[in-house]
Amino acid sequence: MKTIDKIYINGEFITSQGTEYFDLISPVTNEKLGQVILGNQKDTQNAIAAAKETFKTFSKTSKAERIQYLKNIQTAIEKRKEEFINTMVEEYGGTLQFATISYTYMLKSFDSAINLLNTYDFTKTMGESEVQMTPLGVVGIIIPWNSSNGFICSKLSTAIVAGCTTVIKPSEMSAQQTQLITECLHEAGLPKGVFNIVNGLGEIVGAEISSNPDVAKISFTGSTNVGKIIAKEAVNTMKRVTLELGGKSPNIILDDANFAEAIPLAISAAYMNNGQACIAGTRLLVPENRLEEVKKLIKEIVSNTIVGNPKNETTAVGPMVSNKQYERVQNYIQIGIDEGAEILIGGLGKPEGLEKGNFVKPTVFINVNNKMRIAREEIFGPVLSVITYKTEEEAIEIANDTTYGLQAYVSSLNEKRAHKIASQINAGRIQINGIGHDPMAPFGGFKQSGIGREFGTIGLEAYLEPKALIR
Ligand code: NAP
Ligand code: MG
User: Fold this and answer.
1) Ligand 1 pocket, 229 CB below 6 A?
2) What's the Cα-to-Cα distance from 204 to each of 108, 200, 444, rounded to whole Å?
3) What are the positions of the active site (predicted)?
4) Does position 1 have pLDDT exceeding 90, yes or no?
5) Torsion on CA atoms 151, 263, 449, 87, rounded to nearest 10
6) pTM of the predicted protein model
7) Catalytic: 244?
């Protein structure tokens, strides 16, 4: 059994001063895989102090130096591909398919960062003045478990581009993945203190990062509830915040779409990462007069969706990360039933033969209206709500009738029509006839899906403070 008792401060693996342990539990078997020591407030303060000291020099490094550091990290990560994928599969139940894609995105985030350094001008002229885009300072990076190393790589690489130093608090549930990335970052030979990583609880390590006056900015990915707590705390010291929060993304299938392609895509959008994705397309909006056809297609696809051990290449839906998350999803399925929605496929309980793990039956509700809780709240599991609409206008109205606005999907064979609909949806990203990622385009949410954007120039500028020299 593994015991992870080291955290990473000022270029060294050191033993945490925490005294409590957190059990690492397999989502497939619910057996204990290991344990991680939970860092405390003092550990966090030491990490922040190291980042603060290093900022004095790292903020002055050249573009060429930063590019070299990014390349070094990428090289170190490239060497351990299998371990990255396997640990992700084992530790949180991400499917082999998803873990492999995530690994590729992780590596690509360094290419995007290098691209930014090669193209971004940190000195601009605005009006009569010289405007210097200066690094903000120490950045606190607080992230969830559902794509832990992906978030570390995208946020840390942007911080390096900007010349900021960092203190990272991953989820304690990702301790083994964190150990691996820390080893790679260590190997990359960055100046001591550029990145510091403290395992521990949100209420302790996360709270210290959010309140400490020496942290200039928080880049947070996680739930809307915790995002609000962090933003309230951050305002006391006027920290900048970038908040990537939850979603309840609509997927509009227009009547002229190719249903044989759009419906399978809709199922993938809903069940990606076992349904534990902020961008999951969890509200499927279909024309009322095409419902029977949609039902038939969904039944066919979902009954052929393989649920099971995430290690198997063909598995499309693995277990929920924890028993707690399993219970949460069960609770929402019950809420749907109680609200009067009808289960088309799936339902309560575990699939046969998978009773040991946190497996959920991929579920689709029909007869859902947009006022129901299953249409309004983020479930974070493989549960899809089908909602019918009569007109295009109604489809847009339903799509926008949500407190969220992270992502949306539109399917139509008429590109102009799809573009026109997409332009009317209030979401940070709208996917037309597909599911893609553009690492140089902004990513983030409207409304309660967050504040600010990541990726590309807009993402970078959230790590910079403009300074105008007026002559
Ligand atoms: P979460 O509970 O909000 O936790 C996220 C992180 O915040 C964890 O590291 C957590 O620590 C920490 N935290 C908890 N309480 C805190 C506090 N009081 N102060 C500071 N930090 C605190 O989210 P989750 O359940 O792990 O992840 C799922 C959520 O993330 C979903 O809502 C999903 O939509 C969202 N998400 C958003 C995006 C996006 O890009 N928009 C991407 C992925 C996921 P602990 O580990 O101790 O809880
Ligand atoms: Mg949590």
Assistant:
1) yes
2) 32, 7, 26
3) 244
4) no
5) -20
6) 0.98
7) yes
